[in-house]
Amino acid sequence: MPMETIAVSGIPFPVSRIALGTWAIGGWMWGGADDRQAIATIHEALDLGISLIDTAPVYGFGHSEEVVGEALVGRRDKVAIATKVGLDWKDGKPFRNSSAARIRQEIEDSLRRLRTDRIDLYQIHWPDPAVPLDETARVLEDLHREGKVLALGVSNFSVAQMEQFSAVAPLAAVQPPYNLFERAIEDDILPWSAAHGLAVLAYGPLCRGLLSGRMTAASHFGSDDLRSADPKFQAPRFAQYLAAVAALEAFAKERFGRSVLALAIRWVLDQGPTIALWGARKPEQIAGIDQACGWTLSAADKVEIDRILAAHITDPVGPEFMAPPGG
Ligand code: NAP
């Protein structure tokens, strides 16, 4: 099936609705990096029709951006790069910093690591309450006018914060957590974004691998893997989520002849002006991408999915554990 695409205001070509997420490629919080595999994964993604890659300076403290830059040598013009700004780090620990001075430094560091002269989509990674939002928006608008950045986005922002930002600078996209298990944005961010023409880059569409269908009660995560601190992956909740995945897997197979992973990505794509940021670090992890394209879920299918979720997950929890300090 051909890849579906979506226009993002400011990016010169429609981008794929499945994007490659490269947090794990940076290694940090994902149990280490394998650059050879990572570069092969990026090349596989491009070959499969992905034309949007999401990264961030903090992913491996520069490493993810460097690997993306290396992988895109000779192929830069065929792909849009989305990176982020506003998280600094010290001694391996991130903290929020969206000051104008920090942003002026970060853009140059990102352009160098990514081996490019422009960022297609530049997103504030997390809101920084210590810096007036207008200051942050104004410097980003300057970078936009200078042509270093083609489109602006925000991540982990509320609607009120997006309204404040848009009063100063044009906002093209928002990047919130969104997957079958984490649906808080349906109350406000998703409808607001649809009404204002923003693309919604849904992060964690597989809920950090839970919706891949490959996890079992025996799956173990090392102390340097964020899932060791993720409340969804701890007993007794882990069993509830695994049971929901098993029931979704049975539904996906019986109703569509597809995997739960394809169902999870399809569901994100069917919720609005969304882009699924599929995190992968091995080529085989995205090999089944076409399974998620070229079909849709009906309203009745979505009702059945909601029934399955409610039947199994009696003690739901969100992704709040991921927020860096200073919020
Ligand atoms: P995700 O896409 O829900 O899950 C990614 C993980 O799922 C992979 O690292 C892999 O884990 C597993 N996986 C993927 N495909 C698989 C397959 N075919 N079979 C088995 N396992 C598979 O989660 P995410 O990486 O957290 O989120 C995606 C992207 O969103 C990130 O890379 C990043 O670009 C972005 N993001 C942004 C924010 C933000 O604050 N803005 C926060 C989180 C993420 P293993 O390799 O360990 O098996």
Automatic annotation (TrEMBL):
Protein name: Aldo/keto reductase
Molecular function GO terms recorded: oxidoreductase activity
GO cellular component terms attached to this protein's record: cytosol
Domain NADP-dependent oxidoreductase: 17-308
Organism: Gluconacetobacter liquefaciens (Acetobacter liquefaciens)
Keyword line: Oxidoreductase
